[in-house]
Recover the amino acids of this structure.
């Protein structure tokens, strides 16, 4: 059993927010997904990220506005969960509602013990 | 409201739950004063409390004071799920469950019975410290200390809010029933309010009992018996006070106006209570109340039967109050002399001396024994001991009627 980080990219949250009913229905799916994980004891934590941010780069610690990426590349949120192995974590990620969008991507990464 | 909030913050943070309720009510007073009372006040209050709770969760997600690692609370830590989880907790059907769970948490075996009851009255019934003190014949100080100790216990033990497992259920239900009955009595015979009967209290007690009776884990004979008992008493409730706020005694009440619906309902629960061989205090008390309800008049009341019930009650669960009530039955069956003797036989009589009904009964007995001086002495004592205006009026009336 190790911890996995799931990064959510893409999706169309902005558009969805225009309609409260659709937004509500969509969030209910996130709720359902995370709720199930939680009942299985696999949920560790999750947060959505807002679109604006800063980039701090290099030895000089240069600060610039960012990330200015296209919507589909931008990380919109993350979830940390427990899974027996990579396959298990991938299975979990398949339930993620971001995949209801054509451009939705879940990046699954194992958290390394150092 | 406190029940749900305690679920959110954990019993160890009971005070946070209380604070949120306080702040919510405060806000209501301020806003409602300006804008008038909203269409659905309770929905308004819930909404405000919910938002306050969300704020606290956000602020304290990583604080060590709150345990959001508990699987029941984990979803509150994620912004993805926080508001929906929160909303779910405040849904009507959950409110019932939380109320039940809270009842049992209040009656945790790690707490003494006094502390259990104190907490139930405080959290579930919104009693003030003063009201609890009156209901217990004790001081405000003692009640505050009890509440403090209870909170301390919750802080140290992190009690989960849940219905207890079947093997403990019986024993723990008894503590809950005890508290409910106490609440009912305070409403039925209010000692500190200008209004003698406080229907909101008796209704609250009946509602709590109904809650137990409606939920399958707590559908036990003693639950039905208590509910029946309270319904029988309630049937006579409206007739105990005249339009002028004076107490009407049993022998002068208009029996035809007793609420037959409540009596019938009480009867129904009485029958459900009769399942199983176990006889609880409430079974007997309900049987006594039933005898009163079916009698056409005070003289036709089966006092002998009632006295037998009291004998039974005193041997099953000896208490000074049961003994005192038994004396009332003896007075009816065997007259004032025997009644006086019976009072002399009560053990721990000194506990009763500060109790106004004890002195009032002594006054009654002495007046029947044609001893107006003694009777007056006891009536006056009783008058000092009750804070209820209606009681005072009644006792004054009795004093005025004394004849040598």
């Amino acid at each position: 059993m190790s911890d996995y980080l799931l990064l959510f990219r893409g999706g169309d949250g902005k558009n969805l927010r225009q309609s409260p009913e659709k937004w509500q229905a969509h969030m209910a799916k996130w709720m359902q997904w995370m709720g199930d994980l939680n009942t299985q004891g696999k949920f560790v934590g999750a947060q959505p990220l807002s679109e604006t941010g800063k980039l701090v780069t290099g030895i000089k610690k240069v600060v610039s506005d960012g990330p200015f990426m296209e919507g589909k590349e931008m990380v919109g949120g993350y979830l940390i969960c427990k899974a027996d192995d990579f396959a298990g974590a991938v299975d979990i990620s398949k339930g993620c509602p971001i995949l209801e969008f054509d451009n939705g991507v879940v990046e699954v990464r194992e958290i390394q013990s150092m | 409201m406190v029940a749900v909030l305690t679920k959110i913050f954990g019993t160890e943070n009971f005070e946070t739950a209380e604070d949120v309720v306080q702040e919510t009510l405060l806000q209501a007073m301020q806003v409602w004063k300006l804008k008038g009372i909203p269409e659905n006040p309770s929905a308004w209050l819930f909404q405000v409390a919910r938002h306050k709770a969300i704020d606290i969760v956000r602020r304290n997600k990583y604080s060590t004071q709150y345990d959001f690692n508990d699987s029941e609370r984990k979803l509150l830590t994620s912004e993805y799920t926080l508001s929906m989880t929160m909303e779910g907790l405040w849904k009507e059907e959950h409110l019932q469950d939380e109320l039940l769970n809270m009842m049992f948490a209040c009656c945790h075996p790690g707490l003494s019975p006094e502390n259990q009851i104190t907490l139930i009255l405080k959290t579930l019934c919104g009693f003030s410290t003063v009201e609890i003190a009156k209901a217990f014949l004790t001081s405000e100080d003692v009640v505050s200390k009890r509440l403090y100790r209870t909170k301390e216990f919750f802080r140290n033990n992190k009690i989960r809010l849940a219905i207890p497992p079947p093997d403990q259920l019986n024993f723990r239900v008894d503590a809950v029933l005890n508290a409910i009955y106490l609440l009912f009595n305070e409403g039925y015979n209010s000692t500190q309010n200008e209004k003698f009967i406080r229907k909101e209290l008796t209704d609250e007690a009946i509602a709590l009992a109904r809650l137990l009776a409606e939920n399958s884990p707590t559908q036990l004979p003693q639950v039905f018996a208590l509910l029946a008992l309270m319904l029988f008493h309630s049937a006579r409730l409206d007739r105990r006070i005249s339009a002028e706020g004076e107490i009407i005694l049993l022998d002068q009440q208009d029996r035809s106006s007793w609420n037959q619906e409540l009596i019938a309902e009480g009867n129904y629960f009485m029958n459900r209570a009769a399942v199983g061989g176990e006889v609880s205090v409430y079974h007997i008390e309900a049987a006594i109340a039933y005898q009163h309800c079916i009698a056409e008049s005070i003289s036709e009341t089966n006092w002998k039967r009632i006295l037998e019930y009291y004998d039974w009650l005193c041997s099953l669960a000896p208490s000074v109050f049961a003994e005192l009530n038994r004396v009332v039955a003896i007075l009816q069956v065997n007259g004032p002399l025997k009644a006086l003797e019976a009072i002399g036989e009560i053990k721990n009589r000194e506990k009763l001396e500060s109790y106004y009904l004890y002195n009032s009964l002594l006054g009654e007995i002495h007046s029947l024994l044609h001893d107006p001086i003694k009777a007056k002495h006891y009536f006056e004592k009783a008058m000092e001991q009750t804070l209820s205006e209606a009681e005072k009026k009644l006792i004054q009336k009795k004093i005025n009627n004394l004849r040598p």
User: Anything to note?
Assistant: Chain B has 19 helices and no strands. Chain B touches chain A at residues 71, 74-75, 77-81, 84-85 (CB under 8 Å).
